[in-house]
Amino acid sequence: MTAPDDGEGGGAAQADRAMAGIARSGAASLVGSGVSAICQFVVVLVVTRFYPSADAGALFAATATFVVVMALVQLGADQGLVRFIAWHRARGEHEIVDRLVRTAVVPVLVASLIGAGVLSLVADPLSSMFAEGSGDLVAGMLRSLAAAVPLAALHEVFLAGTRGFGTMRPTIMIERVLRPVLQSVAIVVVGLAGAEAGALALAWAAPYVAAVALSGLALRQRVRSAGRRTLGERHESVVVQPLTESAVGRVTDLGPPRSLGRQFWSFAVARGAARACQVALQRSDIILVAALVSTSAAAVYTAATRFITLGQLVNQAVLQVIQPRLAALLSRHEYANAQHVVRRSTLWLTTLAWPGYLALVALAPLLMSIFGSDYVAGASSVIVLALAMMAATAAGPVDVVLLMAGRSGASLASVVVALVVDVVGCLLLLPTLGILGAAVAWAAAIVVRNAITIALAHRLVRMTAWSSELGVVSVVAIACLAVVPVPLAIWRAPDLVVIGAMALGAAAYALVVWRRRERLGGPGLAGMLRRRTAGAGKPGQPAATDSETGLGVGAGGP
Question: Burial level of 515, CB count in 10 A (0-12/13-18/19+)?
Fold first, then answer.
């Protein structure tokens, strides 16, 4: 079965209805991601302004280590719950959900307790590799953070379970809003109080106590609701299409419930390894910079990467929303609709994210000066990473396609290769290029991983994110936002001149996007930019979820 051309055919119209739901969820997720990114930025800004760069780098190295450990102890159960809950609910098998949650949570709890103990034991030897006399400070921070490992791991798994039910509300309200706000407030209080740098780690980790309690309650409510569904409702409105010859090999199908645990962990373990490698890919360069250069350089590099986090908020808002929807489509073998969703979401991602990345390229020195004059040296790293993220955005959610199709092993292979590229690149380039070498290594890893993932998605699932309209949007964005502002920045024109050129380019870009709104999926794209109210789902389609009806508090919320 081939995917329909954008905007053509009944399959495309049906997929557009799915995209409208994704847009409604994505709009709320976008707001939450914006709050989270701003709070993360505030944390870095306060730490870099109130503490010496060596102390700031110590905190960033310690928290990077914490995030890597947390990814390891989750064992891939988070992605497993998203896929398997969405998959079984799409088939009407609601009674399996409770078993799925128990299958996932108990091993994660055990692994996280072990991980916390190991991190506490190795804190001293691990911190000895850091220079500038920061070893003792890093060790103390690691011991403080170790206590939060079980809380953070369970929190992530609980939230992933709620996303499997097709709702983004708990993720938005708890992980995107509540925890980052509490974290930034705690860091600001510590900084204003003039507390020692060691207190920063406690302030950074403390919000996980409230977060895990609320996310656990949110998942419990949805599991209980699923348990009340009668078996008679299972297939009244959902028809499972039989596998056709053309579909063989695309999706790793789920077997009978008796093999649920084996199926879940065969998927999750591979995904857990991939997740750990992916987090290491994102964080290991901070640790390597602190070890091979200095913790001060790690602070500058971390500040530079914060702008990339701001640019990723659109990607995160859309990708988490489409995961359960793609899983549902693939579970019913609706490959044409899934292909349409992938292409359309890639268009949205590129249309909304590229202007931000191009602004980073043109205004990198000015933006880095926000952290202080010592941090302007990180501007070149911002530019390199922004260009890499533009390429990753245009590649689309092909890794999500692999995961939701059950091809977690393929995803693992791509991220392992990327991690090797990143680590080897850092080891080779850091001694000569400093933090720019870390940025180049990470950018190379991003490009390599996306190239591999595109090839695997095309070969294994026969899906691609490319469309002719994607090429048009990419060319228009570069023409409007890079052709004039970037040369002005290179020629060191006054900041106001560069900002003015960017503003004019942005206006021209917005005009072109507006005129092509129908080709871009206008109603859905507009839904990403404003809140809409969703009605009840039609028979055969998921009902409107909490996140699709806005951010207001309602039944089922945490």
Answer: exposed
Interacting residues of 351 by C-beta distance below 8 A, sequence separation 6+: 473, 477, 513, 520, 525
Residues contacting residue 93 through CB under 8 Å, at least 6 positions apart? 234, 257
- If one counts the domains in the chain, the total is 1
Question: What is the DSSP track for 513-539?
Answer: HHHTTTTTTHHHHHHHHS-----PPPT
Name the residue range of residue 326's domain: 27-226+262-533
Measured at the alpha carbon of residue 235, what is the angle toward residues 105 and 220, in degrees to the nearest 5? Answer: 25
pLDDT at residue number 522: 55
The count of other CB atoms within 10 Å of the CB of residue 239 is 9
Closest CA relative to residue 455, chosen from 446, 465, 445:
465
Q: Is residue 21 part of a domain?
A: no
What pLDDT digit, counting tens, does each position of 425-466 carry?
999 999 999 999 999 999 999 999 999 999 998 888 888 888
Residues 227-267 pLDDT 10s: 555 344 444 444 444 433 344 455 554 444 457 788 888 88
Residue 51 within any structural domain of the chain: yes
CA 38 – CA 30 distance, rounded (Å): 12
Q: Is 403 left (phi over 0), alpha (psi -120 to 50) or beta?
A: alpha
DSSP string, 464-489: ----HHHHHHHHHHHHHHTTTHHHHH
Give the chain's largest Cα–Cα span: 70
Between residues 326 and 7, which one has the greater pLDDT? 326
CA distance 387 to 396: 15
Q: Which helix (H) or strand (E) holds 343?
A: helix 335-368
Q: Residue 248: inside a domain, yes or no?
A: no
Q: Which amino acid is at 14?
A: Q
116 exposed, middle or buried (CB, 10 Å; 0-12, 13-18, 19+)? buried
Say which residues have a Cβ less than 8 Å from residue 320's Cβ, sequence separation at least 6: 29, 163, 168, 171
- The model's confidence at residue 524, banded by pLDDT at 50, 70 and 90, is low
CB 463 within 8 A of CB 470: no
- Please give the torsion angle defined by the CA atoms of residues 60, 112, 108 and 168, in that order, rounded to the nearest 10 degrees: -30
pTM of the model: 0.72
Task: Look at residue 378 and tell me if it is in a domain.
Answer: yes
- End-to-end CA separation in angstroms for the chain: 41
- How far is Cα of residue 338 from the mean position of the Cα atoms in its chain? 20
Whether 37 shows a pLDDT value over 70: the answer reads yes
Nearest C-alpha neighbor of 377 from the set 441, 311, 297: 297
Q: What's the average model confidence in pLDDT over 413-418? A: 90
**Rounded distance between C-alpha atoms, residue 151 and residue 225, angstroms:** 25
Kindly give, in sequence order, each residue whose CB lies less than 8 Å from that of residue 336, ignoring residues fewer than 6 positions away: 1, 2, 3, 4, 11, 15
Task: Say whether 29 sits in a helix, a strand or coil.
Answer: helix
Average pLDDT of span 396-404:
84
Task: Show Cβ contacts of residue 196 under 8 Å, excluding neighbours closer than 6 positions.
Answer: none
